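User: I've been trying to design a sequence by hand for this structure and keep getting stuck. Would you show me what you'd pick, starting by listing the structure so we're on the same page?

Assistant: Good idea, let's start from the same input. This is the structure you sent:
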């Protein structure tokens, strides 16, 4: 599946394809932001697109990537099962919990959950 801009719950969302390049740092985030800029308010990225270092918070990769989305006022949604990482990282569990309380970055299990969050 390639990247596709679609309307979900009345919100334009760039749904990134599973087969796209890995997002491993700030430049990769900017590439995704560029693809969404002025076409979408939300970017939904499958877990498989993120480099493993994204989920190891001590590397700083997640912070750099998330900051790019915040700077460009574009919501990021990480879509998929991250239990393998949250099961071993209290810091990541805390990040997910706090992010999901806000409106800028969400972690959801599937696009149905994203639709429900956007609709509420």
């Amino acid at each position: 599946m390639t990247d596709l801009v679609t309307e979900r719950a009345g919100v334009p969302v760039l749904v990134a394809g599973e087969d796209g390049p890995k997002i491993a740092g700030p430049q990769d985030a900017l590439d995704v932001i560029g693809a969404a800029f002025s076409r979408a308010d939300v970017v939904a990225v499958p877990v498989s697109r993120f480099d493993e270092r994204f989920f190891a918070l001590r590397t700083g990769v997640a912070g750099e990537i998330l900051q790019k989305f915040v700077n460009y006022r574009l919501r990021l949604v990480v879509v998929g099962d991250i239990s393998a990482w949250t099961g071993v990282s209290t810091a990541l569990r805390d990040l997910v919990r706090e992010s999901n309380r806000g409106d800028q970055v969400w972690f959801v299990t599937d696009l149905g959950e994203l639709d429900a969050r956007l609709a509420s």
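That's my pick for every position. To get oriented when you compare it with your attempt: The first strand starts at residue 4 and ends at 8. The chain has one domain: 4-119.
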